[in-house]
Amino acid sequence: MSNAESQGMSALEIRLQRESVLPDHEARRKELTGPHINTAKFAQPAAVAKPTPSEKKKKPLLETRALHKSYRKGRLTIPVLRGVDFAAEEGKITSIIGQSGSGKSTLLHLMGTLDTPDDGEIHFANTRIDRLSSRQRDSLRSRAFGMIFQFYHLLPELSTLENVLTPIMISHGMWRYWSARKQFRKRAEELLEMVGLSHRTTHKPRELSGGEMQRTAIARALIAQPRILLADEPTGNLDEKTGGEIMEILKRLNREQNLTIVMVTHDSSIAAQGHDIIRLTGGRVEKQ
């Protein structure tokens, strides 16, 4: 037995230590953050009461302006987004609905800085984010955005608990993670309990149902206490009953933690559970 194993480290922790992930955390943090972006400003503010209809409309937390995006396929240029204006208010669930090929997932990926637009602007917390460097986008995502996807994207060799902890291990580095591992593991366990998986912490993804994998993905998305949750077809791979349970978790997070959620779906009954609905057709927002 190695010294690391004798200290109770998980397989993932041992691997990260051996690979010396971010040994100089402060230097790496500065490298990721860069000189032109202060990620502290994106931190989750204290919970506030949800706005009433009579209150003055707030400035959007996440906003796009005249957003364009095309993809190349051989000699063809395929336009996907054609000047999309979008706004998500803080503390609300905003649904983006559209048929396959309407551009809704592309829009979500652009807002989550997973891709860059051809033209237009993206603003988050009053800061333009579409012109950030790759490293700055990585830093922003790790601190302010939580993301869940239709196909879960769990690491098959890791347990449920380790999958939830992965973003923290990567963003903090092994040494900082190790110094606060009890605190991080406690938060991960609390999140798994919140989504109803406290009895499945040691199970691998292959041992989980689709609904359990999506619950794990939700817990993973929340581990860094993001300010906004971006959900790409969160119920699209689930049956109606299980999808309903996932929606209840998302609505509870919004209601109890004032978490802003932007959700892409093709299902009108799912979209209707949001506060605001944006419909995309042919890469454009339909006028209401």
UniProtKB/TrEMBL annotation:
InterPro entries: AAA+_ATPase, ABC_transporter-like_ATP-bd, ABC_transpr_LolD-like, MacB-like_ATP-bd, P-loop_NTPase. Signal peptide: none annotated. Keywords: ATP-binding, Lipoprotein, Nucleotide-binding, Transport. GO terms for cellular component: membrane protein complex; plasma membrane. PANTHER family: IMPORT ATP-BINDING PROTEIN, LIPOPROTEIN-RELEASING SYSTEM ATP-BINDING PROTEIN LOLD. Belongs to the ABC transporter superfamily. Macrolide exporter (TC 3.A.1.122) family. This is Lipoprotein releasing system ATP-binding protein LolD. It comes from Blastopirellula marina DSM 3645.
